[in-house]
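Sat 14:20. Reprocessing the chain from the morning session after the first attempt stalled halfway. Input below, unchanged.
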Amino acid sequence: MNQQTKWSQFGVLITVFFFWGFVAASNSIFIPFCKKFFELDQIQSQLIGSAFYGAYFYGSLILYLMSAITGTDLLNKIGYKKGIVYGLLISVIGAIALALISGSGNASFGWVLVAFFIIALGFSLQQTSAQPFAVALGSPETGTHRLNMGGSVNSFGTLLGPLVVSFLLFGSVSSAKEASIENIQTLYFFLSGLFILASIIFAYANLPKTTSDEKLEKSPKAMNLLLVIGVVFLPVLFSDWAQEVTGMKKSIIIALSLVIILLLLFAAMIMAKKNPAGWGAMAYPQLVLGMIAIFIYVGVEVTIDNNFGALLKKNAFGGYDESHISHLISLYWGSLMIGRWTGAVSVFNLSKSMKRIMVIVVPFVAFGVILLVNVIKGNDISDFLLYPICIAIAVVAFIYSEDKPVKLLLTVSILGAISMIIAVTTTGMIANFAIISCGIWSSVMWPAIFALAVNGIGKYQSQGSAFLIMMILGGAIIPPMQGAVIDLESSSDASVYTYTQLSYVVPLLCFAYLAWHAIQTKSVLKKQGLDVDEQVAASH
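Finished this time. Tokens:
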């Protein structure tokens, strides 16, 4: 039954989209700060991301296991509204813990990681609830519109996060202060207050107890595989302890975990093809390929930026210290906003000529917003003057791709790979812009990968979506893998070509894989008589 979007209710819902982006992007400033403050190596500093994105995996896995064991979809039982409220309250605990830890005179990095894990654990429950809730607050046909709007609000949070955290840690550019971990106490007390306020608003707001009426599909083989993946990832999360126990270097431990997880997923696809019983949604090869692609995509989006601060400290790339990188970090996350705002144009019922005009205009408007926010913060934006060249290339790519998932994913993956080649072979702002532009290329990957992965999986759509969200785990393991390459520099006396720069070969390989994924998934779907690109073309 068609129904109008409940905008007043949806306006309440999208506040959580802002929180996810704000905190996730803030890690980009927090990581180099913690590396210096706690005297960490690059791998250890990346454990902030590992704790954060690992919590998304374990949170989703716990919810899935509890539902499987009880035979009841727990989220469906309590409803999306309560799911968001409970998720916000979990994040409150983490935010207050982090504020108290940072305010103490002897803050421990281990406890910082625990607090980040708890915050993200709450985000995991919020995200699992909020995305289907957004679709339910109106006609199903316009659900994509609401998700794109939520994504736009999320991107605005990613733009503001690095700037606000940088200001609280270091002050403005004109009045820099000595960085201290106590400086973030105010931020996380403030965030905990916002989480509490949001939970109260959600609890008492006139929101429907929306649930899904889909049957809980059993898939014991898939459940066992995900449990094994959870065990394999633990040595990454506790890499210092694993190094002491095994005697292996942390870089080897991380590499082994990464390879084993990918091999397990590919092996599952082969086994499910031979005998699909018990695999649930994973009986469909496009879904498993999608899980691997989401793992790689989230990993590359996060690792490019989380290790960017280490590169910017090099004289060949600007020689910035931690207090002066927020404008470039915000430009990277702002680039995701540029791509998502542009991608959202396609959901509106515009004429072909008007749509093309908007695809040209919207990204530059988004860039204007980025400039304005940086000016207000007091950042020098002279570094940004040539970046519109990258935006112009993106406009051509979006027009060429025609909103077709395979064509779009292949195009931006190739552009990402080219950008990484430029990054590892040049220096200065050319290399910096090549890295930052990957924010645009990454911005439109999630919906493209998602659309291809769930195409044709029938009654397993809900379960398949849950499996895909679990693969956010890639953001927890690929960044420390790149960090392992950077740490090789401690034993190198290279003065021009550094391991920090060479480490961007890791995202280069990720983009190359995603290009292969687009081609391979198209082939898999074609064998099933499905062609997503043709479906999109026919609908226009």
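The chain has 26 helices and no strands.
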